[in-house]
Design goal:
The chain is α+β, with helices and mostly antiparallel strands and 204 residues long. It contains three helices and 13 strands. A hairpin with a 5-residue loop joins strand 7 and strand 8.
């Protein structure tokens, strides 16, 4: 099962609780510079608070939080005339509740239902983070597919200057021994985030 490194998870847990308190009733990306002293790496942390449409029965968060760890920097795409301005490291959606995950071949996962900008309902299976309180955006063999889809409505890297970004995400997952949690994220302009996370493909 893909799990977040302990250092990153510790940083992320503190950050999304802080973001939930500081950014209450707001829909804006919060950007924070982070440093991992053990691995001597720096990265950007982006957090966006959503809201519960159907709240969990029991949660330590008043609102869900979308968390992203990304590393800005140019990356030329081999064999193409394009590049990205960053790299996606990891991301997850924190609910603060215990999710109703099930064991699978690659680890614990959960069924996720979601709509982007009110379009057709999509259903997929995503892995959960190590404490089963959130869903992981990273995927085996396609690390940033979920992030690409949530930000621009397609799993491939977003070509600069094409379709507009997604503005509203409605997403549902099941809580352990309870019903479905439903949440909504209203996305402000996410160009800076998408660039830092390597989602946008630029022409050289």
């Amino acid at each position: 099962m893909k799990t977040l490194p302990a250092s990153a998870l510790a940083i992320g847990v503190a950050a999304f609780i802080t973001a939930a308190m500081v950014n209450a009733q707001s829909s804006a990306w919060i950007e924070t510079d982070r440093y991992d002293p053990l691995h001597q790496t720096s990265f950007k942390e982006f957090s966006l608070q959503g809201r519960f449409l159907i709240p969990p029965r029991q949660s330590n968060l008043s609102a869900p939080v979308l968390m992203l760890h990304c590393q800005p920097g140019r990356h030329d795409h081999k064999g193409t005339k394009s590049y990205s301005s960053g790299r996606f490291i990891e991301g997850w959606i924190a609910t603060g509740a215990v999710l109703n995950s099930a064991a699978g071949k690659l680890g614990a996962s959960i069924t996720v239902e979601y709509r982007l900008d009110g379009k057709k309902l999509q259903t997929d299976s995503w892995e959960v983070i190590s404490d089963h309180s959130g869903i992981l955006l990273n995927r085996p063999f396609c690390g940033d597919c979920n992030l690409n889809n949530l930000l621009y409505g397609h799993v491939l890297p977003h070509k600069e200057g094409t379709n507009p970004q997604v503005r509203r995400i409605i997403l549902g997952v099941s809580e352990y021994l309870a019903g479905q949690i439903q949440m909504q994220f209203d996305l402000p302009d996410s160009t800076e985030v998408a660039n830092a996370c390597g989602v946008i493909e630029h022409k050289r």
